[in-house]
Amino acid sequence: MITENIKDVRERIVAACERAGRKPEEVTLLCVSKTKPCEMIEEAYQYGERSFGENHVQEIALKSEYFDGRDIDWHMIGHLQRNKVKYIIDKVKLIHSVDSMRLAEQISSEAVKKGLTAHILLEVNMADEESKFGLKPEDTEALAREISSLPGIVIEGLMTVAPYTENAEDNRVYFRQMKELSVDISSKNIDNVNMSVLSMGMTGDYEVAIEEGATHVRVGTGIFGNRIYKNNA
Ligand SMILES: *Cc1c(COP(=O)(O)O)cnc(C)c1O
Hints:
The protein has nine helices and eight strands. It has 233 residues and is of the alpha/beta class.
């Protein structure tokens, strides 16, 4: 089932790229494996997938340990608490969910301590939803400038979680605005800030996101099926 799902998602990615005149290699598929067991990740890995998204620190720690030595890129896509940065900083390729100077400072200090460079995205709440984390679009450049002076941390782009909708077209406007915001910030040539990554699009709307310029799409349900949350998850 997972294999068929991935095949289908991959085909849709190629088709969306064709519609947009883009190359499929420009789009990284993140298989969002949160709450799912390692056996399912193994199946996706056997199919050829190498990038996985998780939103809990403990799960990243456990799963990266389980797959120790494999060529897997782990991506932190969920809200990150400052006191937990130290547990994942050397395990993830990219932290997608930075939306405050305090969190960036913590990431910077842990990175310096471990002698590495942390790669991050700024999370933007494009639709200004109260329930969501993320920066207001108009505050994003100012935070990028503040973070740019910190050691051990590089901003690689922007991430957004668009509103839940039955109709993916509803989110096109947010994806388009996010692309515009990234082009705008990119044009400012801020040190340690580049806008090469646009992480946007989930199971319900990743094709539209690709048409609007997504470089990373985060697909969970569409690959692994519905998630079952336990009380403590
Ligand atoms: C869970 C999650 C996803 C995947 O959502 P699906 O709708 O299952 O594809 C993507 N991005 C973030 C930040 C998530 O937390």
